[in-house]
Amino acid sequence: MKTLALLVLLAVGQPFLGAADAGAAPAVGGAHAEAAHPPAGPERWEKEIKAFEAADAKSLPAPGGNVFVGSSSIVKWQTLLQDFAPAPVIKRGFGGSQISDSLFYAERIILPYKPKRVFVYAGDNDLAAKRTPAQVAGDFAGITAKVHAALPAAHIYFIAIKPSPARVKLMPEITQTNALVKAFTATHPEASLVDIYTPMLSAEGQPRPELFGDDKLHMNAMGYAIWVGIIKPLLAD
Fold it and tell me: What is the per-residue pLDDT for 99?
C-alpha cells in the first residue's frame, strides 16, 4: 500500500499532461465519443468550457452545491439533477475528456461554484489512450490539491472507473487505478473513492452487459441506477 501511495505522489510531482436549471449543463460535449486516441491538448475543450461560463453569466449556481465533472458518463447522465433532488447539483461534464482535462480546467469548472462536494468521473479514456494508472491517480490528486487549497471545507470524490464490456481488456489497469486512488484517499481525509466498480461486476467478476447500451461502453438506466444508489447517501447533510 505504501508503494501505491508513493506512485501517486510521484505522479503528482510530474507535469500534468493533456492536462433553465442553474446547475444543468448547456448542450456541449454530447457529440464526442469516448476517445481512444491521445489528446491534442486540453485547449480542444475551450468551446465547451466557454459554454459553461456563458451559462454561469446568466445564472450562477448558489455556493455549497455538488459539482459533477468528467467525461461522457457525466454528460450522458440525463437524469443527474433529478436523481439527487432536492440536493443542488451542477453538471459540468464534457464527453470524451480525460481526467487531465478536468484538472486543467478546475479553476473554471469547479472553483467558481464554491461547492461543498466535488464528484469526478474520468480515467477510462486516459487508460484507453495509453496513460498509466499512476498518471490518472496523480491527476486526481492534483484536482484534490487545487480544490482543497481554495476550498478547504470541500470534499472531493473519485467515482471509481467503471468496468465496461467494451474495455474489458483494460480491467487490470482500471483496478490498479482505483487501488491507487484508494491508497491516496487513505492519507487525505478531504478525498474519498466511491466504489461503483464492484456492484457493476457479475458473480464471475466480469462487466455486466445488461448495465450498458449497444456500444457496450456507455451505461443505460440500469447502470446509472447503481450509481444513484451509492452516491445519493453521500449528498445527505
Answer: 96
Q: What angle do CA 22, 24, 26 make, to 5 degrees?
A: 105
Q: In what order do the strands lie in the sheet with 66-70?
A: 89-93, 66-70, 117-121, 155-159, 191-194
For residue 31, what is the DSSP state?
T
Mean pLDDT estimate for the chain: 87
CA–CA dist 62, 66 (Å, integer): 10
Residue of 115, 181, 121 lying closest to 148 (CA atoms):
115
Is 210 a residue whose pLDDT tops 90?
yes
pTM of the model: 0.85
SS3 for 119?
strand
Task: With a cut of 90, say whether residue 7 has pLDDT above it.
Answer: no
* Domain span at 68: 2-235
Phi then psi for residue 224, to 5 deg, are -65, -30
Domains in the chain, number? 1
In CATH, what number is assigned to the domain containing residue 66? 3.40.50.1110
Cα diameter, the chain:
50
Which H, E and C letters describe 201-231, residue by residue?
A: ECCCCCECHHHECCCCCCECHHHHHHHHHHH
Task: Give the torsion sign (CA, 150, 183, 193, 219).
Answer: positive
Per-residue pLDDT tens digits for 130-150:
999 999 999 999 999 999 999
* Terminal CA-CA length for the chain: 32
The whole-number pLDDT of residue 237 equals 75
Cβ count near 87 (within 10 Å)? 17
